[in-house]
Amino acid sequence: MPISTVLFDMDGLIFDTEGRYKLCWQAAASEQGFTLDDAFYQGFIGVQDAQCEQMLLSHFGSRFDLSRFRRERDQQLAALSNKPVDYKAGFAALFQQLIAQDYRLALVTSSSLPQVRHHFADSPWLEKFEVVISAEDIANGKPAPDCYLLATERLGVTPAQCMVLEDSNNGMRAGIAAGCHAVMVPDLLKPDDDVRANAMAIVSSLLEVPALLSQANA
Asked: What is the pLDDT of residue 140?
């Protein structure tokens, strides 16, 4: 079945935000005397904030003050909010090409809708997505397939008609479990063995996606 639809993750795929988020989360943990190292933080990538916070509580125990952590993290993020977030290489060219070729497009992110609107502010891209799925729309975040299944339902397409673009292992697992063609463009994470085995492709840049679509639809 030809691929007619492309489902985009957001953080780390469209926007170069993952490194910024990591520093804010690590600083907020450090403010309480806890060390949130890179290895543990990697498990947060592609996962909703509420799930990540529960992981912190389980990891650090009862001495960890989640309310205090949230305040500090949000202050750190707010301090960066006026600084523009860079688009990842190749996004604009890919997006314009997909629009010109009449692909249907959806945004499927673990971030909240206010975060989505903030990142896309002063750009024309957000309104070009036919469907936007954000954290508010689903109870079970990535790696559960719910977000991608909801996107296909709202678009009225089957998963087999969809290419998922993700930068994280959890996002890839969600797309694969939904039955989509999942392509990873790694950002902070390398693909895990299970993701590598089940991915349609693993590419170094969004610039490689048009060739994959051409091959799949040949």
From this structure: 94
Under 8 Å between Cβ of 39 and 59: no
Which amino acid belongs to residue 182? Answer: A
Distance of CA 68 to the CA centre of its chain: 26
> What is the CATH number for 122?
3.40.50.1000
End-to-end CA distance of the chain: 11
Domain span at 188: 5-15+87-216
Check the CA dihedral 69-75-80-86 and report its sign. positive
Phi-psi map region of 46: left, alpha, beta (phi>0 left; psi -120 to 50 alpha): left
Q: How far is residue 20's CA from residue 13's CA, in Å, rounded to a whole number?
A: 14
- What value, to the nearest 5°, has the Cα angle with vertex 133 and ends 74 and 112? 10
Instruction: Select from 193, 106, 198, 210 the least CA-distant residue to 152.
Output: 106
Place of tokens 């990591």: 22
Query: Model's pTM, two decimal places?
Result: 0.82
For residue 8, the Cα-to-chain-centroid distance in whole angstroms is 8
* Structure-token pair, residue 147: 């977000």
The segments of the chain whose pLDDT lies below 50 read none
- Clarify whether residues 114 and 188 are in a common domain: yes
Q: Which residues face 202 on adjacent strands?
A: 184
**Residues 71, 102: Cα–Cα separation, whole Å:** 44
